[in-house]
Amino acid sequence: MNDDDRLIRELYSESTTRPRTDHPDEATWEAMALGELPEERRQGVLDHVSRCAECAQVYRGLKMLVAEAAIFDAGVPRSASRRPLQWPNRWVYGGLAAAAALLLMLRPIPHSGTSPPGPTLTARSDDPLRSSAASAPVPVEPTGTLEGAPRAFRWQAMAGRSRYRIELFSRTGDLLWASPPVEGTIVDWPSSVPRAAGRYYWQIIALADPSRPLTAPASSPLVSFDFATP
Amino acid sequence: MVRRITGPAGDLVGGDIEQKVLLSLWRQIEREQTIEHPASYVCRIAIREAVRVMRQETSRTRRAVTDAEAEAQPDSRPDPSESVTGREQREHIESSLAELGPERERAVRAHLAGFAVQEIMEMHTWSYQKARNLIARGMQDLRTALRRRGLHE
């Protein structure tokens, strides 16, 4: 950049730091992050971002948030700038979600006891943030209320992925344990975590295969289980 | 999860937003009766709360910087001639930008606001080549327009 361009940029920067009152509201930012803003409004926000230093900073932070959130939920748009899904795509995803739900209903539940009061694993096409079973691993057990402490974590593999990481969270959301990359669809309860009665959350992250390192990780939904007797 | 989501954004706005987001998140969760898809729910609420906190932090930081600048200059009244020149120059830049086509104007404004080519192509879903061309040609048009106004020799 030459000196004249630098001067232009400095003058422009000065104008972007002047106080403004027409900032996008929080609902607009949220919709933008989740890819739910109509194209015309999204463009309006971006035009504002280029004129307002304060909102440019929020926009950059938002992009980082979305990138991180997508690791936990494959349904979160990968970028704050992603266009919202067009209707044909929604139908395709809806069809995949319905097929996944049907598969889950047809397979036997592997553990006895009462039905899980916590998160359901059936896909819903009306939730824009939902991870679809077709694009993420599916937790099998433990889920719901158990009679005793679980001995292992088991899940359904994701097509095209062979390496997984399990993350176990406490009732308050603290990470208790993260497994090293594992191959297969079962891993034992970690010896480092005491089997204390209570509620836990866990999820599986399908890792990129070493041969395709640029593939994005895909996460299962976070599911809960609880048990009273260790 | 919240730590991972909010950490980089917190670094960017210079505030520890994780704690604030966690508090708001727990309050939100307490109000709900059942959560069918916890991961999705938590992600959505974390994003919502983080946006709120980020906006507060950003405007707080800006106010603090402005106050510090004002304190550093005891006589904060600008030189009248300098003020007029600066305002005129900014007005010339605005008028010249308005003369560009819509896409070139967007590309150049984003470039002048400090966004990199990669960021601009993502913002507007352009290819890298298109974003780069729009910036280069737009800047050329801007220089020509400013030269016409006697601002860019």
Features:
heterodimer, A: 230 residues, alpha+beta, three-stranded antiparallel beta sheet, 32% helix, 19% strand, B: 153 residues, mainly alpha
SSE blueprint:
The complex is a heterodimer of chains A (230) and B (153).
Chain A: H1 3-16, H2 26-33, H3 39-49, H4 53-72, H5 87-106, E1 138-141, E2 144-146, E3 152-156, E4 163-169, E5 175-178, E6 182-183, E7 186-188, E8 198-206, E9 218-219, E10 223-227
Parallel strand pairs in A: 2-10
Antiparallel strand pairs in A: 1-3, 3-7, 4-5, 4-6, 4-8, 8-9, 8-10
Chain B: H1 2-13, H2 17-31, H3 38-72, H4 80-99, H5 102-112, H6 117-123, H7 128-148
Give an overview of the whole structure:
The complex is a heterodimer of chains A (230) and B (153). Chain A has 230 residues and is an alpha+beta fold. Chain A contains five helices and ten strands, in the order αααααββββββββββ. In chain A, strands 2, 4, 5, 6, 8, 9 and 10 form a seven-stranded mixed β-sheet that branches. In chain A, strands 1-3-7 form a three-stranded antiparallel β-sheet, with no helix packed on it. In chain A, a hairpin with a 5-residue loop joins β4 (163-169) and β5 (175-178). The relative contact order of chain A is 0.12. Chain B has seven helices and no strands. Chain B starts with a helix and ends in a 5-residue tail after the last helix. Chain B is flat. Chain B has helices at residues 2-13, 17-31, 38-72, 80-99, 102-112, 117-123, 128-148. The interface between A and B is large, with 62 and 54 residues.
